[in-house]
Structure formats: structure tokens, C-alpha cells
């Protein structure tokens, strides 16, 4: 009797696996795109927001809208400063470290964050600014 129950459960499990689409993958891979960065100077992010020097967590948010949304939070992730839509960006040389790109701003203004490349990723995220 127990062997029949075991076989029945095994068949149900196997049928469950067949119902999963072949291209489906867990969304946890998106959550692995998370890095902690320490800035020694204030920096600007889109929305004309300037963040002070300090440690921040950059994380790709799992979006059902298939948009690349980056969350910027404090070091212990208890405060979110921004959720920003980004443009896909590719780099030529892959680094095993996080790479942050900045664009120049006018004299007396902090540099503006332009790109974020997670470690070991060719694909990155470009922050979109409104024209000034």
C-alpha cells in the first residue's frame, strides 16, 4: 500500500515538472544583481537628487513589467532613496568589480551617476536624465 502511495506521489511530481514551460527560470537570478558601493563624495542621481558620501546598495528590482528598474538604498536597506528606470548598456571589458560611471557636471556641482555595471556582468544599467 505504501509503495502505491509513493509511486502515485512520484507520478504527480513528474507531471508537475512537465507543466513548467521549458524557458522558465526563477526570478532569483535578477535579485543577485546587487552591489554595495561606498562613495567618497556626494553624487547626483536622476530626479535632481544629490546623495551624500556614504555607502549605498544598488539592486536590480524584479519587475513584472520587463523594465530595468534599479533601487538605490542605504547600506542596511532600511531606506530607499530612489527607484529608477534605466536603459540597458553594454561594456566591452568585463570586470570582477562593480563599475560606476559618472558624467561631468558644471563647476560646483557633484558628478552625476551615469552607469552601473555589476561585477562580472557585460550588461549594465544607464541612468536616464532629463535634459537641462
Commentary on this structure:
This protein has 132 residues and is α+β, with helices and mostly antiparallel strands. It has one domain. It is 16% helix and 41% strand. It has two helices and nine strands; from the N terminus they run H-H-E-E-E-E-E-E-E-E-E. The protein has helices spanning 2-18, 28-31, and strands spanning 34-39, 43-45, 49-51, 54-61, 68-74, 80-90, 99-103, 112-117, 123-127. Strands 1-4-5-6-9-8-7 form a seven-stranded antiparallel β-sheet, with no helix packed on it. The chain is globular. The N and C termini lie far apart (75 Å). The relative contact order is 0.17. The model is unreliable at 6-31 (pLDDT under 50).
What would a concise description of this structure say?
With 132 residues, the protein is α+β, with helices and mostly antiparallel strands. The chain is 16% helix and 41% strand. The strands form two sheets. A seven-stranded antiparallel β-sheet has the order 1-4-5-6-9-8-7, with no helix packed on it.
Which terms summarize this structure?
132 residues, alpha+beta, seven-stranded antiparallel β-sheet, two-stranded antiparallel sheet, 9 strands, globular
Amino acid at each position: 500500500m505504501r509503495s502505491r502511495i509513493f509511486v502515485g506521489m512520484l507520478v504527480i511530481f513528474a507531471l508537475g515538472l512537465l507543466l513548467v514551460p521549458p524557458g522558465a527560470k526563477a526570478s532569483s537570478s535578477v535579485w543577485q544583481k546587487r552591489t554595495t558601493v561606498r562613495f567618497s563624495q556626494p553624487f547626483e542621481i536622476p530626479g535632481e537628487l544629490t546623495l551624500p558620501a556614504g555607502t549605498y546598495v544598488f539592486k536590480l528590482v524584479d519587475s513584472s513589467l520587463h523594465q530595468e528598474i534599479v533601487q538605490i538604498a542605504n547600506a542596511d536597506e532600511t531606506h530607499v532613496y530612489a527607484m529608477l528606470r534605466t536603459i540597458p548598456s553594454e561594456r566591452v571589458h568585463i570586470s570582477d568589480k562593480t563599475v560606476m560611471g559618472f558624467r561631468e557636471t558644471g563647476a560646483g556641482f557633484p558628478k552625476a551617476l551615469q552607469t552601473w555595471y555589476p561585477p562580472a556582468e557585460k550588461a549594465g544599467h544607464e541612468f536616464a536624465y532629463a535634459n537641462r
